[in-house]
Give the backbone structure.
Amino acid sequence: MTDVTPENHGTSRADDASGTAVGQAELDRFHALRRTRAVSAQGPLALTGTQWVDHEQTVWGVPGRWAPTPQGVSGLALTATAADGIHVDGDLVDGTVIVAGDDAMTPSALRFSATTTGTVIANDDHTGYALRVWDSASDAVTGFGSIDAFPFDPDWVVTADFVPTAPDAQIDIRHQKDLELSRPKPLPGLIRFTRDGVDHELAAFPSGDGDRLQLVFGDATNGDSTYSVGRFLFPTPNGDGTITLDFNRAVLPPCAFSYAFNCPIPPAQNRFTVPIEAGEKNVLDSAGQPLH
């Protein structure tokens, strides 16, 4: 198990300072991209609602009637008139159309107004769908201040062992709004390292973006200096049996930006008893107060 207890290895203070300055500059660019994404038209601050559709119904805040599609057909059925002003894939809806979900070969583009758009998402087994409504002029977007973060700390760049698991291995993931529901995820490997004499064995699941994994973790800062639910990290295994965990790039989950998200919570083995004072801390409004 890799020992990541910080050591100097003969480097000078000047070398350390230079490396920290470079690391901070790279981190500043990363945070700038995060802020830009947060306020984008379908960024996390723009999400105003997520409503699951299991029968013909209306959806809060938008026109039209929404219904499940026949089995095997991705998305939702939308019935609207031209006066409702809804466009699907650029065409004005006047009648009933299928709005393809995010599991379709080509998901539908849905627009309600100049600032309001929609997407249809599938549940884990692709048997049900929800409508997500995004408003690029939402109160959260217009009132956004910044994403607070710790300064770069080279001691929280950890090289760990990545130990592959059996092909059918899974990790039980729960979400904050329905803790009783298990959502098993594939477990491609275990992340092992020792820090300050404490052994850690973390579990991360595929992120859906190439070989990147998603690590959902908690630590002693949660509910104090950082968002209470926990944070995410997206590492990629190296080709030599290791994986680099740069906790400086730990990010807030979407639910820190909008209550309309239902975020995974850290599994027990991913909960550190020590504070990890690296990465994002809280979403702040224009007055500098935590958004949630």
Notes: The chain is about 10% helix and 40% strand. The longest strand covers residues 178-186. Residues 13-38 form the longest helix (26 residues).
